[in-house]
Design a protein that fits this description.
alpha+beta, Ku70, Chain: A, Domain 2, 5 helices, 9 strands, about 30% helix
């Protein structure tokens, strides 16, 4: 895998040569073209002026910023050059903050920071220091011209993980919405809801959660490529009904949660017993 960026991670006077790699796999995106229903020929888009209805050539097109509905200001190549920020080969950690102080909404895309030759010891030192202090290093990274990201550097297992971050003005404040007050929650309801959460709690296993829609869609597409039609039942739409008796629903959910918990425990005990028997027979 080729690195997406190479440079140095700095904090104080310490300089660590690093390479940046994506920490997530590229998602297999299903893309579509618009086709003419009659002969499946691709439909082409044309650049048409909303004012004259005539086609506009590329050389007559400029970028514009809509500052109010229907009102634009043209932005030229010279304007973009004037605002340009040079790409940098340095990730400078400006501050270290407590990991629990940063709102998760700020974090965006994760990348692995891998030490380049000669940077292994300083890399390990920074990783251990971040882990011991439960900190996040906050800095900036420019991976290409005119794109500067706020970035957080964390310790995850043996790796330093860099996550691009959103700036404050990019977040929507909770005050934009109305949420129910704590006074709306009755103690007995809260106790039952807490019991339900505890009964359904288990270690996080990401392999349990799959993209069912993508799997079904690709199954249909592959069948069509072979000239086949497959019959996949369409799920019934769930009606959204108002919960009349919250306590009854909580009690019902709690009983259901207990049954699932008992089944999981029985399966776990069965697996443990089989494993023990196999060890004894060996």
């Amino acid at each position: 895998m080729r690195p997406l960026w190479s440079g140095a991670l700095t904090f104080g006077l310490v300089n660590i040569p690093v390479k940046l790699y994506s920490a997530v796999k590229a998602k297999e995106r299903v893309t579509f073209r618009l086709l003419h229903k009659k002969d499946l020929a691709p439909v082409r888009y044309e650049r048409v002026s909303e004012k004259t209805g005539r086609k506009v050539e590329w050389e007559d097109i400029v970028k514009g910023y809509e500052y109010t509905k229907g009102k634009f200001v043209a932005v030229t190549d010279e304007d973009f050059k004037a605002a340009a920020i040079e790409s940098s080969k340095t990730i400078e950690i400006l501050d270290f903050v407590g990991a629990d102080e940063v709102d998760p909404r700020y974090f965006d895309t994760p990348y692995y920071l891998v030490p380049a030759k000669g940077g292994e010891k300083a890399y390990a030192l920074l990783r251990e220091a971040i882990e011991l202090t439960s900190s996040v290093g906050i800095g900036r990274i420019s991976m290409r011209t005119n794109t500067v990201h706020l970035a957080g550097v964390k310790a995850v297992d043996d790796a330093l993980l860099l996550e691009t971050m959103r700036f404050e003005h990019e977040l929507v404040a909770p005050s934009e919405f109305t949420f129910p007050a704590k006074a709306n929650v009755r103690p007995q309801e809260l106790k039952m809801a807490q019991m339900l959460v505890e009964n359904l709690s288990q270690p996080f296993d990401p392999s349990k959660y799959t993209d069912e829609y993508h799997t079904k869609l690709m199954k249909i597409i592959r069948a069509k490529m072979k000239g086949k039609e497959i019959d996949i039942p369409v799920p019934e739409a769930r009606e959204s009904t108002q919960v009349v008796d919250l306590m009854a629903r909580l009690q019902e959910s709690l009983e259901m949660g207990k049954k699932h918990g008992a089944k999981r425990a029985a399966r776990k005990t069965s697996r443990t017993g089989r494993a023990a028997a196999k060890r004894e027979s060996a």
